[in-house]
Amino acid sequence: MKGRWLIVTLVALVLTGCSTKFVYNWLDWIIEWEVADYVDLSRTQERQFEAMVDEMLLWHRREELPKYRDQLVTLRNQVNHHLTSEDALGHIRSLEQHWLRIFDHLMPRLVPLMQTLTDEKVEQLLSTLEKENQKDIDRYLKKEFDERLSRSNKRTAKSLKRWVGKLTPLQREAVSKFNYERHQSMDLWVAYRQAWQERFGEALRHRGDGALLRSELRLLLVTPDKIRPAGYKEQLSMNQHNFADALESINASLTGKQRKKLNRELGSLIDDLADLSKN
Q1: I need a surface site. Which of 240, 247, 249, 250 has the fewest CB within 10 A?
Q2: Burial of 119 (0-12, 13-18, 19+ CB in 10 A)
Q3: How far apart are CA 252 and CA 259, in angstroms?
Q4: Closest Cα to residue 239, out of 194, 231, 203?
Q5: What is the pLDDT of residues 238-257, one digit of tens each?
Q6: How does DSSP classify residue 223?
Q7: Quick check: helix, strand or coil at residue 218?
């Protein structure tokens, strides 16, 4: 199963120009389409999966979207006064908790579904995940550092432009500084993903033991920090702090025009989340 399908879609709502309401209302279809790229489900499994997604989205709309809205209201107040690095770090960590709560909620339905997979489908899923890992290795580790950095700078600048408009040279410098430091940890990231996938594969191959499967999936999907190597956790923490510093710097340097656009975009998203949570 595509372990990151929902969070990728939700982040896309924030980082692209797509209509939040439009995309969210199609999430059930989008999720099913994404998962189909990873494993072929039988008709019975498809119905089981659809029921799981429908229930999760209903819960997410009612319980989680109000949390997102409240966080954005707080963020808007902070960016209009003084967003500190500590404030930004708090938001980064809250985003991770939003993600982990989704899997925590899914667990009671996810475990029985995974137990219905045949050996053939398990191997299909693991093979597809391995191909995805290899794509990332080719995309990052096999590229020259300067090329990776340049691509990341362009991608980050494009995302920020969506929110504040064209970046100033000082803001681009903050982006470049963050990405330069972040790319130092790419080898640790790939190694962790490979180790995670190996453990995930072992859990699925022993899926007949429901208690073991539940324990392993909870560890891998809900509390992954418990199995991250110390060096990788240290690097992740450093990256988060550096990103928070970059956000503080960029926010402090916003022009009047940029701040006006940011407020407009945040206000629109806040309103959309409020409307979605009521429907």
Answers
A1: 240
A2: exposed
A3: 10
A4: 231
A5: 989 999 999 999 999 999 99
A6: -
A7: helix
